Amino acid sequence: MHAVASYEQEFQAQVDADGRIEPRDWMPDGYRKTLVRQIAQHAPSEIIGMQPEANWVTRAPSLRRKSILVAKVQDEAGHGLYLYSAAETLGVDREELLDLLHQGKQKYSTIFNYPTTSWADVAAIGWLVDGAAIMNQVPLTRCSYGPYARAMIRVCKEESFHQRQGFEAMSVLANGTPAQRSMAQDALDRWWWPALMMFGPSDTDSPNSAQSMAWGIKRFSNDELRQRFVDATVPQAEHLGLVVPDPDLSWDGEHYRYGAIDWAEFFQVMKGDGPCNRERIANRVTAHDEGAWVREAAAAYAAKHTVRTVGAPA
Ligand code: 3HC
Questions:
Q1: Furthest-apart CA pair in the chain: how many Å?
Q2: How confident is the model at residue 98 (pLDDT cuts 50, 70, 90)?
Q3: Which residues pair with 257 in a beta bridge?
Q4: Which of 133, 143, 149 is nearest to 212 (CA)?
Q5: Burial of 153 (0-12, 13-18, 19+ CB in 10 A)
Q6: Quick one: pLDDT at residue 28?
Q7: Ligand 1 centroid vs 31 CA: distance in angstroms?
Q8: Mean pLDDT value across residues 34-41
Q9: Residue percentage of the chain with pLDDT more than 70
Q10: How remote is the CA of residue 201 from the centroid of ligand 1, in Å?
Q11: pLDDT recorded at residue 5
Q12: Does the C-beta of 209 come closer than 6 Å to ligand 1?
């Protein structure tokens, strides 16, 4: 009979050797709990993340922009489904996770609680929010938990398209009429700091990072990925001729040093008191309720057309 200690050793040796932990493998309860915690926050971020941009589908400035936006919003729905499926491999029930979200008891990325007041916001979300998401999600393709890492591979491929279309839309505005340029600058002013908050609290205030990194769930710290994002994005803003809304931003020869993040705002939005938290959940609950008939029809179809293996009870 294996003592737990040797299971622990085998598990940690597998993680330290950059191996993958699969659903049927032994894993510490804390590892399972941390993954459920993180994926349960990640999946609804994708689902709620559909709303800010979907707000502009009917008002996109051209058929081309509309078709790109519809494809992107649809991708986000798929990302949410992959992630809920990854969570289910850890033994959690998708409906329970959705109930927590609908009751306002499930965290999701604060960034999606800000309003999209102009078309330039759709461009800024693609460029900045999906850009930050890529920075944070590419390392997750090497996460120690197999189903999560594999879900991230397709997500990241689609995110690259999201980020590129956003930057291209931002470039059209930044090189457009004075009114379009000021729309682009206004969007950058409003989305820059919430995008930096996407990487989580500073490393000194992150209760989960150390253990997540020891378990190979997190490959880099919140501040490391935030710094990478700033270093990659500031030159892009300069290329667009836009000004990053940070008077303390400076280049020190290696990195762009940025000003203080308003953590009070971050924790306020995380607590549910952001500009759109209540609206986002209300929309989500309405969509879930109004979509019940689709789920029932799909379940009925599946039950009727499930191919039974020979000898299986009818
Ligand atoms: N919004 C809301 N909550 C956040 C947050 C954010 N931006 N950043 C951190 N938090 C929460 C954490 O969930 C944690 O709360 P909990 O302990 O109650 O679960 C707490 O703040 C402390 O943060 P930690 O840094 O200790 O927590 P983590 O180690 O989990 O790191 C994280 C936070 C980096 C966001 C990590 O959870 C992660 O990588 N999550 C998966 C990726 C993700 O969610 N990306 C962003 C949204 S997806 C997206 O952008 C979709 C795209 O298509 C647009």
A1: 74
A2: very high
A3: 250
A4: 143
A5: middle
A6: 96
A7: 16
A8: 98
A9: 97
A10: 9
A11: 76
A12: yes
Which protein residue has the closest C-alpha to ligand 1 atom 5?
200
Q: With a 6 A CB cut-off, is 219 part of the ligand 1 pocket?
A: no
User: Does the C-beta of 76 come closer than 6 Å to ligand 1?
Assistant: yes
What's the pLDDT tens digit per position in 26-36?
A: 999 999 999 99
102-148 confidence digits (pLDDT tens): 999 999 999 999 999 999 999 999 999 999 999 999 999 999 999 99
- Distance (angstroms) between ligand 1 centre and the Cα of 199 equals 7
User: Which whole-number Å values give the CA distances from 244 to 3, 90, 103, 226, 241, in the listed order?
Assistant: 56, 41, 37, 15, 10
Ligand 1 center to 225 CA (angstroms): 12
What the block records as the tokens of 262 is 């308003």
CB atoms within 10 A of CB 210: 12
Task: Please work out whether the CB of residue 208 comes within 6 Å of at least one atom of ligand 1.
Answer: yes
To 10 degrees, the CA torsion angle through 19, 154, 187, 243? 60
Q: Is 206 in the pocket of ligand 1 (CB under 6 A)?
A: yes
* Residue 42 identity (one-letter amino acid): H
Cβ–ligand 1 contact at 109 (below 6 Å): yes
Q: What is the pLDDT of residues 247-283, one digit of tens each?
A: 999 999 999 999 999 999 999 999 999 999 999 999 9
Instruction: Find out whether the beta carbon of 116 lies less than 6 Å from any atom of ligand 1.
Output: no
